[in-house]
Every structure is written in structure tokens, then in C-alpha cells.
Amino acid sequence: MSCGIARIGKPAPDFECQAVVDNDFKTVKLSDYKGKYVVLFFYPRDL
């Protein structure tokens, strides 16, 4: 996972992380969603 420093009132820094998409792990980047609304929800995956 990589990221920059978040600043209030500024665009979010680009980052990439592992996410569960359709029950599989996938690497996603914030820049993949440029121009779209994004809501981040952090939740530990149930095993």
C-alpha cells in the first residue's frame, strides 16, 4: 500500500491497496476512479 499525505480542502492523494471485489482480492488505485464519486468503507473481511 502506498499513499501521500492527506490535506483538508485538497484533492486526495493517489494510493493503491488490496480490496475485495466480487469475493476476490484485487489491487485498486484511487486514480482508477478519477472523475467519479468515491466512497471508501474500511471493514475487516469476515473469514
Features:
single chain, 47 residues, mainly beta
Question: What would you say this structure looks like, in words?
Answer:
- Residues 8-46 form the Alkyl hydroperoxide reductase subunit C/ Thiol specific antioxidant domain.
- This is thioredoxin-dependent peroxiredoxin.
- The protein is mainly β and 47 residues long.
- The protein has one domain (1-33).
- Helix content is 0%, strand content 26%.
- A hairpin with a 2-residue loop joins strand 1 (16-21) and strand 2 (24-29).
- The two termini are 21 Å apart.
- The mean pLDDT is 83.
In short:
The protein has 47 residues and is mainly β. The protein has no helices and two strands. It has one domain (1-33).
Topology at a glance:
Blueprint: E1 16-21, E2 24-29
Antiparallel strand pairs: 1-2
Q: Please describe the biggest sheet, giving its number of strands, its sense, and whether it closes into a barrel.
A: 2 strands, antiparallel
Number of strands: 2
| Overall spatial form | elongated
Mean pLDDT: 83
Order of helices and strands: EE
Q: Structural class given helices, strands, pairing?
A: mainly beta
Write down the Rg.
12 Å
Protein name: thioredoxin-dependent peroxiredoxin
GO biological process, one term: cell redox homeostasis
Enzyme class: oxidoreductase
Keywords: Cytoplasm, Disulfide bond, Oxidoreductase
